[in-house]
Every structure is written in C-alpha cells, then in structure tokens.
Design goal:
This is Cell division ATP-binding protein FtsE. The chain is of the alpha/beta class. It is built from seven helices and ten strands. Bound molecules: adenosine-5'-triphosphate.
Amino acid sequence: MIRFENVGHRYGMGPEILRDVSFHLPERSFQFLSGPSGAGKTTLLRLLFMSLKPTRGLITIFGKDRSKITRSELPLMRRNIGVVFQDFRLLDHLTTYENVALPLRVRGREETSYRADVIELLKWVGLGERMHVLPPILSGGEKQRAAIARALIEQPRILLADEPTGNVDPQLARRLLRLLIELNRLGTAVLIATHDLGLMDQVDARRMVLSGGRLEIYD
Ligand SMILES: Nc1ncnc2c1ncn2[C@@H]1O[C@H](COP(=O)(O)OP(=O)(O)OP(=O)(O)O)[C@@H](O)[C@H]1O
C-alpha cells in the first residue's frame, strides 16, 4: 500500500535526519513507530502524509510514485490517510460534531448526506453525548477521540497517529489503544508513533524503531 525505498531526508542544508529508510506498510496492518526524541518520527509521518518530499529515495503511495503526484492531486490522495496530530488541532469555535463533519463540509457535501454517518462515528468513539460541546470543555481523552473521529470520517485506508497518548493517563491510553485495535480489525491500517513503551507492550504488533537516522523493523 505504501512503500519507502532508501528514503533520506534533510531539512535545508542540515544533517540527514532519515537515512536509507526502507519499509512496506501493507493494507490492514498495525504497527508502532518509536525512537528517541528527535529521531525523526514526525518527519517520517510528514513524508507519509505527503506534507514533505524526501530529499532522496523512492516513496510509493497507493501505487503512485510520490515524486509524480502533483499538488492538485494531493487532496484526493490524502483522503485515504487519516491523521491524528499530537495537539489534536480541533477548532475551538466549532462543536465536536462540526469538527468531525468539517472535512466533508469543506468538500461541499450536503449535511443531510453525512449527518447520520458523523453521529454514528461519534457514538463509536464514545462521544455520542458530547457532540454538541465545544472542544475547550472536552477532557483530554474526549479531545483525542474527537480528533480520531475527524481523522476517520472519510474512511481512510490508513490512520497515522502522532503520540496519541501523550496527554492522557495510562487508563485512557489503554482505552484509546483498544479503539485503534478495533479500527484495525475493521480493516484500516494503523501506524502509531509513540515513545510510550508501556503502550507498545500491550500489543503484539510490528515495531518500527528509528535511531540515528536509520530504521529497524521488528516483526
Ligand atoms: N522544519 C524543520 N527544520 C529544520 N529541522 C527540523 C524541522 N523539523 C524537524 N527538524 C529536526 O529534525 C529532527 C527530527 O525531528 P522530528 O520532529 O521528526 O523528531 P521526532 O522523533 O518526532 O521527535 P519527538 O519525539 O521529540 O517529537 C530534529 O533534530 C529536529 O530538530
């Protein structure tokens, strides 16, 4: 589904942050991406989301060569990639429901065509009772689930989550992990970037570990 071959990345004239990174993310797979702070996890996620271009190597995303994907093709390609950012990035002046529906509204869809889907998804992440609330009064765990729902509303083929348990207590982190495992069972590939060893120990999943710019994979 997504393949990296000898990918390298440097910012400007700086040192190479990623070196000869090669891996394949199959459909329906589940994996963790870890490594010390500054190892390049966010950089790798940005390459996957196509908000950065590699400075060398080959990236193939859904069968297409990344270097041949034009700016105008990006929005359509990105619908297949859901992203949960470290800081959730919810819009404070929109309700939970409106935040989750936003990607569809931006695309010009009529509310009647998606309302039921948004409500169903909010119920699935456990926010059925909180859909008309503004993000500033949601708890950390609720914000996180709202961000996951927003990432899933377009039924992406892969979900990328950057340190999704960074701001929540261990119990909430476990609940979140169960939600992501369930999502994966339903057919979505999942990649969780984290340095939370406790979280990784709860699942027998593939581990991708970045260190010194190189990637090691433990299946
Ligand atoms: N826009 C940028 N310009 C220059 N250097 C950058 C930029 N973004 C990241 N870096 C550098 O690239 C390296 C990797 O950063 P990155 O954010 O990918 O690491 P990370 O593994 O996600 O770290 P953390 O776990 O702390 O979030 C760091 O040395 C960082 O300073």
